[in-house]
Amino acid sequence: MSIMYGNREAVRVKVKKCEKNVPPETRKFSVDPQITSLEVLYSILAKAFDLKTDFGISYKSVDANGLESYLVVLSDWDLDAAFLRAHNQSIATKSEPCLNLRVDIKPFSETSEWDGAGGSGGITRELVSLQQSIGAGQKYVQTKLPGLIMNQMEKTFSLVQRALNLTEDPLMTQAIRPPLADVEFRTFCDSVGQIVEPEQLRKVIYLGGIDP
Description:
Blueprint: E1 11-19, E2 22-31, H1 38-48, E3 56-62, E4 68-72, H2 76-93, E5 98-104, H3 119-163, H4 170-173, H5 182-186, H6 198-208
Parallel strand pairs: 1-5
Antiparallel strand pairs: 1-2, 3-4, 3-5
Organism: Culex pipiens
Protein name: TBC1 domain family member 25
């Protein structure tokens, strides 16, 4: 969840998914920096691209000389920095904040040159960061995503219960009338003790129960 970003409006997000031997795919959506943590972002991206494998996240950064590079997102602090850069860039360009992300699901051993990387040292550092990011993505897919789905299902079921008034209400469980006593029970029987008004008797028992 973004803390540094402050009370800002939703940020537009453009995402490019890169995978070996597969044409790139793009998605666009908006998020609120105040409630979007790295875990939430992983969930959004996994659903947006229907990802069921490891993936890493990086965001585009432009330095003072106009050179572009991609910085890997490994923590909520990294995501905060990405939102802050998008905000500062929007001020400089007098445009709406836009966060450009890259999702890379290639295995580390097959990772090729990164866009905007300068020099072998920079490439090495980014590849190491990418490996860490992919590890984070793998951990999320294996552990966090199922939990989020289950939590969402529980929340949805709770809302449905409330909407249909299925949740137990203490007022509804209180007896509407006094319990059926022996004297009243006799009024539902004839002279030989056989029940003559079974439907009415069931209704009385349902509404008030039976006196022990």
